[in-house]
Amino acid sequence: DGGITQSPKYLFRKEGQNVTLSCEQNLNHDAMYWYRQDPGQGLRLIYYSQIVNDFQKGDIAEGYSVSREKKESFPLTVTSAQKNPTAFYLCASSIISGRGDTGELFFGEGSRLTVL
Amino acid sequence: KNQVEQSPQSLIILEGKNCTLQCNYTVSPFSNLRWYKQDTGRGPVSLTIMTFSENTKSNGRYTATLDADTKQSSLHITASQLSDSASYICVVSSFPGGSYIPTFGRGTSLIVHP
Fold first, then answer.
1. Using only C-alpha atoms, what is the Rg of chain A?
2. What are the pLDDT digits (tens) for A83-115?
3. How close A57 comes to chain B (CA, Å)?
4. Separation CA B66–CA A85 (nearest Å)
5. Is the CB of residue A6 less than 8 Å from the CB of residue A109?
6. Mean pLDDT over all residues of chain A?
7. Which of B24, B36, B47, B100 to mutate to test the interface with A (most CBs of A within 10 A)?
8. N or C, fewer C-beta in 10 Å, chain A?
9. Residue B72: other Cβ atoms inside 10 A
């Protein structure tokens, strides 16, 4: 089945450690996104990418890094510079506008990161 | 600044009852409005999409309405089931040129009790 796969589902990290969250999609979507979700808040955009080898900062990019070496993959690294990394992280993808797209985001199942 | 406000923040109802969730927005230029359902610990899934010219759209027991003049939308759930317990997120997208830009509401947490 086509979809977005995030791993790991749960991750625990000690302070000062970098961790990488995986996101893979087989929907042949051009655009991929990383969102952060905290209790009582709307989704906030961390990074997005519309083509391979190119990505843009979102609203809360500080302390995070990404890469887009393949169309199917968009890993997110949470660095030690991120002051409050404990959160639920959601990866999403979408068709690029202009090709019958309506802006629908297709989300993965999320990764919950806890800093000990 | 584009904003999406949802109410109530949380809602508890008995199984079988109906409920209505509200979404007010100030997003410009408006392109479309989506309601997503997010089960606890899962990713959001799109329920319905409304464009400027649409007033009502149904998806099973879910009915969404849109009043583009007052910039309000509602999601009505009929004959609620335990599986309706989830967070419902209103997302309004603008299309200033080139790509959609979504603005997310904070969601309404719905709990359906037996």
1. 14
2. 899 999 999 999 876 555 677 899 999 999 999
3. 14
4. 37
5. yes
6. 92
7. B100
8. N
9. 15
Residue B100 pLDDT: 81
Burial of A71 from C-beta contacts in 10 A (0-12 / 13-18 / 19+): middle
Chain A CA closest to residue B94: A103
Task: Identify from A60, A99, A104 which residue to disrupt to test chain B contact, counting B C-beta atoms within 10 A and taking the largest count.
Answer: A104
Cβ pair B105, B87 in contact under 8 A: no
Query: How far does the CA of residue B36 sit from the closest CA of chain A (Å)?
Result: 10
State the Cα–Cα distance between residues B102 and B114, nearest whole angstrom.
35
CA dist B20 → A5, A29, A58, B81 (Å): 32, 34, 32, 14
Question: What's the pLDDT at B101?
Answer: 85
**Candidate from A97, A101, A108 with C-beta closest to B43:** A108
Full pLDDT tens readout for chain B, 114 residues = 889 999 999 999 999 999 999 999 999 888 899 999 999 999 999 999 998 888 999 999 999 999 999 999 999 999 999 999 999 999 999 877 767 889 999 999 999 999
Distance from CA of A37 to the nearest CA of B (A): 10
